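step: validate -> pass
step: tokenize input -> pass
step: predict -> running
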Amino acid sequence: MSAPLGGTVLFADDDHELREVLAALLTQLGYEYIETTSGAQAIDAALQHLPDLIILDVLLPDRDGYSICRHIRNTPQLAEVPIILITATDTPEARLEGLQAGADDFLAKPIAMSELHLRIRNVLRLNRYRLLREERAKFTWMAEQNDVAYLILDADDYIVYANQVARRYIEQLPSPVSAAFPSQTFLEIVQQHYNCEPRDEWANWPHPAAHNAPRYLVLPETIRNRAFWLEVEVVPLSHRIPTSHLVRLRDVTSLMNLQHDMRGFQTLVMHKLRTPLVGVLGGLELLLNDPNVQQHPMIRDLLDLAMQSARRLHSDVTDVVSYLQSESVVDPYPGLVLHHLLGRVELIAENLGIGFIHFEMPDALSPLRISIPARMLDIIFYELLDNSIKFHPTRSPQITITVQRVEPQRIAITIMDDGLNLTPEQLTAAPNPYYQGEKTLTGEVPGMGLGLPTVTTLLWRNGGTVVVGNRPDGPGVTVTLFVPLVQVGAG
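step: predict -> pass
step: emit ->
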């Protein structure tokens, strides 16, 4: 059978010679074909292949073509497939019965192959045009009800359709857009009102941007309004009409402003809060070490209290900065080889004042490389171990870390402490930014709950996940990191 240039045709006829002639003609014309010899075979094959056209002989061994036609019209999957009936009696009565059964066209025997070719071509063309109009009507209705902007561009980048939201973004488009309007291309129109960013990615419009980079239309910020951002996505409408494109404009202003605000907040925290705190801590340290202060217990106690509060505030500010930085951490180095995991964890534990880590990992896993680079893994373990200290009754947790292979290309790293159990609500909310785990938002629990959000952010970015639970054998929490493997072998 040839490639499906013109569609798939199913024909049912018990005449062997006619089937051979039909098969040869359809092959020559570039149609796929499916041949059957009975009504039952025709119905089964139609349900299996969903052809573009069915050709039925009125006289088949098991049942007549009219009843088969009615059966097809009553079958939802096949109801819209066009049918040509082949009849030996080309009478008005036979045609009327065929029309009542649901046939679209008729051919009388003996069949002229040139006429058959034209009938097949015309029926397929009319049916596709009808289906196209129905699909276009559905698309138009859905697009008009949608809160996302959609446009259709022709081969020359002229707009042939724009929904209501698109017309709102591009104000000079009338409603509806006519074939003769606008006189400018889509790119020429948007450039009058928006900046096309990044400019290099718009150079080959409307072809896909290099490396699938996003394209934006940006309405610059004014005294009264913040910048307005539209993300632009374009896809070919059909592989048969590659020069026609569907364009989606999505308002991402809130997202872009949020990222801008987070960067501004990060700068504020780092320079406006953390830097002065360093001076406060240094000044308190000098005062506490002053011999004159040592002679006044009340003053010393007040300074101790101030130092504790300043250190806690400094720790909280550091947590905020760590979380914000984790949103944009990009590490060009490959993932960590598990052989080096214990050494890095022990160094972090030592810096935090944790004396001993119980570590279990099969030797066979040592040469495996995980997807997370060493620097990111250091951040993850620092946050988790620091949380274990903060939420332990005596601030001296016993930590157990186990590593096991749970899938051929994934490992699980479980960190378990002996601190406090979490409630179901806390287990659900723990990965959320700034979740603290206390009943009321007094801020009295040390730390701002940024450890797990930082861990979650970094894991998601590297294809991993995190699961938080309570220890099954006593007080404490387990955090399991599911991390992909990227390479087998020594690193």
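step: describe -> The first helix runs from residue 16 to 29.
step: cleanup -> pass
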